[in-house]
Amino acid sequence: MDYIIEMLHITKEFPGIIANDDITLQLKKGEIHALLGENGAGKSTLMSVLFGLYQPEKGVIKVRDKEAKITGPMDANTLGIGMVHQHFKLVENFTVLQNIVLGMETTKRGFLKMDDARKKVMELSEKYKLFVNPDALISDITVGMQQRVEILKMLYRDNEIMIFDEPTAVLTPQEIDELMQIMRDLVKEGKSILFITHKLNEIKAVADRCSVLRRGKYIGTVDVADTSAAEMSEMMVGRKVNLTVEKKQSSPGDVVLEIKDLSVEAKREGQKKKLVHDVSFHVSRGEIVCIAGIDGNGQTELIHAITGISDMSSGTVSINGEDMSKKSIRYKNTHGLSHIPEDRHKHGLVLEYNLAYNVILQEYFQPNFQSGTFLKNDKIYEYAEKLIKDYDIRSSEGPFTITRSMSGGNQQKAIVAREISKSPDILLAVQPTRGLDVGAIEYIHNQLIKQRDAGAAILLVSLELDEVMNLSDRILVMFEGEIVADLDPKSVTVQELGLYMAGAKKEGE
Amino acid sequence: MKQKSTKNYTGILSSIFAIVLGLIVGLIVLFFCNAQQALPGFATILTGAFTHGAKGVGQVFYYATPIILTGLSVGFAFKTGLFNIGTPGQFIVGGFGAVYVGILFTSLGPVHWIAALLTSVAFGALWGLVPGLLKAYFNVNEVIASIMMNYIGMYLVNWITKSYKPLFNNLRNESRNVAASANIPKMGLDKIFPGSSVNGGIIIAILVVILIWLILNKTTFGYELKAVGFNRDASKFAGIDEKKSIIFSMMIAGAIAGLAGGLLYLAGTGKHIEIKDVLPSEGFTGISVALLALNNPIGILFSGIFIAYLTAGGFYLQLFEFSTEIIDIIVAVIIYFSAFALMVKLLINKINGRKATISEQSREGGKKS
């Protein structure tokens, strides 16, 4: 067979853990091969082995049927292997062209000769329809364009084998479509692509074959065309996963959260624009109301105004009938409001504190955890142990783990545990599953449903249409700071929802 | 609490590493200056403090008192996410407060020294309050604000001292003696260390160290302060009044540095506020003390004593025709290597925690960030 890369029986151990256990990965020439696995399945370790950053204990790597000893990224480069990292490696204040030639500059008597390089870059850019402006500064172009620069970098180095590490995480839907097209074009020109991801629909869209890893073990390789998304997700997670959430019919009770005529004005000078414009709605016990919309249409400002992180210009926020517009954040926190924030590192956690100190972040002053002015450490660690058990938060040192060292999914679980264990009347969940893998998403969705059924009111802000359609009992669509529609998920299609979100349609039209 | 104890251990180890390297460099410097006398000179640095037995030890504690406190001021602010470079200003203003009360309020009797000390605390706190307010409400960088406060403090003290007759000794261009009742009592230390300048100040300093350690590690107040220092947004989000925390942090840091000034000028050892355009060195030494101790309050106690010990030993270097500035070089080099100490600490953690960190990394898998 004409495999261009073969990684055979790779085993890489770290003290206490086998990161890669007898993994075989074979990349055919001219195919897009997906590498699927949850966070922590060993994908990155495997790629680090391929790039010579780690030496495997067992196994061989063959490139073009010849056994290769790869001791560092330079070796990988000479073998024609290139990679687009999840976080781009670009110099912000250099131009596109300067970034592409960086490290491979053409020179004449010590002076740069950019003309040749420019010609080559433009040819490549043309050939693969990348359309980058070679003189634009990296800091001025979009993330999607930056990614194309990374692709050009590989092309400029004549790399035959291209690795994309979670390339779609940072892109908008349109950019994702364009990237998929670029990947297809690349393969047509004889390149081979290894595509690392945990998003199944992208694999279905673009990949030929898919290898699945789970907890450091090789599960199998399948032809994408013959395998359903559900089967692949089962291979990845190791059990059946409900891609749709099962829930009972909602039975809304008393109104908990009531927003009236809430407006937020832009703070920047010279701007009179209202970021949130006369928004009114309510959320009742036992229902999940979802605010859908494209990012940047005022959702963040609305939520910050409700919680009190930033001020509103006008309007009222009441919880359980009590006007909370002028109350402090702490008052709201202790009177029925819980909030899973959008940015878990900025607002959700004190990353330098350990897990126990983070789960009491809003309750350390309660008599359970404080006597006189002293912290009751015994009680705090006891409580943290309980939450760790109840919410299955995984970490290396239990309640003593510094939260920075925990995985994203477990950090989010810690926040969810903290917010839900307060048994809130109203729970604000802002993109609660962003950046998480399938297992964690399923878990968090179930927790939200459980809270709903226990009688909490839930306001969910989400950019993922699947999540919106699956979870919500009522959908509010936000567009340019206004609520443009109040929809029933059972009687609206995704396409229709998309039109409302894009502002192409308003309710009543 | 097992994890915590291993971490402390590596912290101490890395500081010792810095000290050893610093001393070696000091030895090299001695060799350069005068190779024949280098070894005896070096021995003097290490043992000089004991030359006069108990008196020498007492002297070490006397030197250590103000720098332990200025170090604590810097370290405390660091722990709460603030860089208090304003210790010299807080120190001199606090010292001035103590001297003012010490000279003028002679009718207070036995509580005179306590009132003078409290004034130094209040003045220092006031000098910390200003950068705190600016930081909390206008997001002015506390480093810049406190540097400005240093100069305002120094010149203000010079000006008031010079222009107000009862305070000023114009023969020696410095402040007058404080009343005897304002001197810090010896608290029995003169019996243990006869002939030395040591007084109750060191006991007060140790008590303050313990108090700060308690606040930082055991109280909800300290929990809030540290949370704000680590992540101001998350703290605000959790309902902590983050402005109040920043202001309190700077006030407490200022108060400690002010107390340091009070304890020095009330020591009854002939220390006066001299009218010169130089910021008191005790303030900046505090930064060294805090860095060497990696901001740990208990560590600061020991690093303060250690630096005082070197200074005391260095005094005798003159016997070998070396100048005492060599001690300053050694201390500077030690601080220089304390920066490396952070690196060494990371290295030790890496070796110790290889298991933990790497398994974590590999479990992180697809998400590298």
UniProtKB/TrEMBL annotation, chain A:
Its main location: membrane. Keywords: ATP-binding, Cell membrane, Membrane, Nucleotide-binding, Repeat, Translocase, Transport. It holds the Pfam family ABC_tran. It is found in: Cell membrane. PROSITE patterns: ABC_TRANSPORTER_1, ABC_TRANSPORTER_2. InterPro entries: AAA+_ATPase, ABC_carbohydrate_import_ATPase, ABC_transporter-like_ATP-bd, ABC_transporter-like_CS, P-loop_NTPase. One of its GO terms (cellular component) is plasma membrane. It comes from the Bacteria. It is a peripheral membrane protein. One of its GO terms (molecular function) is ATP binding. The keyword Cell membrane applies. Gene3D superfamilies: P-loop containing nucleotide triphosphate hydrolases. Residues 5-240, 257-505 form the ABC transporter domain. This is Heme ABC transporter ATP-binding protein. It comes from Lacrimispora algidixylanolytica.
From TrEMBL, chain B:
Keywords: Cell membrane, Membrane, Transmembrane, Transmembrane helix. GO terms for cellular component: plasma membrane. The chain crosses the membrane at residues 12-32, 60-78, 85-105, 111-130, 142-161, 197-216, 246-266, 326-348. The keyword Nuclease does not apply. Its main location: membrane. Pfam families: BPD_transp_2. This is ABC transporter permease. It is found in: Cell membrane. It is a multi-pass membrane protein. InterPro entries: ABC_transp_permease. Signal peptide: none annotated. GO terms for molecular function: transmembrane transporter activity.
